[in-house]
Task: structure prediction
Amino acid sequence: DIQMTQSPASLSASLGETVTIECRASEDIYSNLAWYQQKPGNSPQLLIYDANSLADGVPSRFSGSGSGTQYSLKINSLQSEDVASYFCQQYNNYPPTFGSGTKLEIK
Amino acid sequence: QVKLLQSGAALVKPGDSVKMSCKASGYTFTDYIIHWVKQSHGKSLEWIGYINPYSGGTNYNEKFKSKATLTVDKSSSTAYMEFSRLTSEDSAIYYCARADYYSYYFDYWGQGVMVTVSS
Result:
């Protein structure tokens, strides 16, 4: 199985800041990567697919980038509603596998 | 709008089985694959498997092959997962999620079913 190593495990930032979350795959996943946001008590919601495509209805302050084994999610102008856990997921190979998550809090 | 409505929470005894449902609405049921994902408390996500509602074909994560059985009822646009021989390790939230046939990222998720295994 492809291992997805996500960092940092937790992150605290101020409103209006820019934050970046990283995900590293154990082998090349050819941009077959998605990012999800999970707010407390809710199910995950798709943010980004194909490494850099914004899902419908997702604010443009979210962006994804990367290639090969290294990927990142950037959140510009952090808002209070961005408090959540974020997960990456590769879907290049079966089984699909997820990163361990990043918990984002507001300072 | 697209919705995946899952059945309610379950409290089951060790060794028992549990069957949960995922009712789809707002789209053509057979146009998308239904996947199932496990989230243990406070932890990350594990893919269990998928079912193709059109053909009934399935694909399981090796880890869950002897544990999970996926079925579908096209007439009611409902997918089911049965989890057998439950242990405390199976206490978790189980989500169904939708993906298209070509890219296995999940664009809609159910609200989740909390399963608690306790004697």
